[in-house]
Amino acid sequence: MATYEVTLKMEVLGEFCAGIISDIDNYMEKKNIREDSKNPVVLLLDDVLEIKRNILYQNTMEDMLKMQGSLIFANKYIKKLEKING
């Protein structure tokens, strides 16, 4: 059973995921990248979506922190792409 802190972290990470997914979707739309392409951005989107699906199945803070690290990386990556490629 998840503690209050883990439950709170689940909610925060869920919102963080939603923001990253939105940024990736906007970037893909701007650059005309199709979801069925082999573009690395599509792979990044798939990874973030997988994390979002799995958040509810984790029940330790350690699991939450691992996902948080992956999301921080994904967020930095898409922000750099936006900055470099417009």
Tell me the series of helices and strands, N- to C-terminal: HHH
Total helical elements: 3
Could you say what the CATH architecture is?
A: Orthogonal Bundle
State the major sheet.
Answer: none
Question: Based on CA inertia axes, which overall geometry fits?
Answer: elongated
Q: Report the helical percentage.
A: over 70%
Radius of gyration: 14 Å
What does it look like?
- The protein is mostly helical and 86 residues long.
- The protein has a single domain (4-85), classed as Helicase, Ruva Protein, domain 3 (Orthogonal Bundle), CATH 1.10.8.
- The chain has 3 helices and no strands.
- The N and C termini lie far apart (44 Å).
Task: Give a short overview.
With 86 residues, the protein is mostly helical. It contains three helices and no strands.
Protein topology:
Elements: H1 4-30, H2 40-54, H3 61-85
Helix pairs in contact: 1-2, 1-3, 2-3
What attributes does this structure have?
mainly alpha, 86 residues, Helicase, Ruva Protein, domain 3
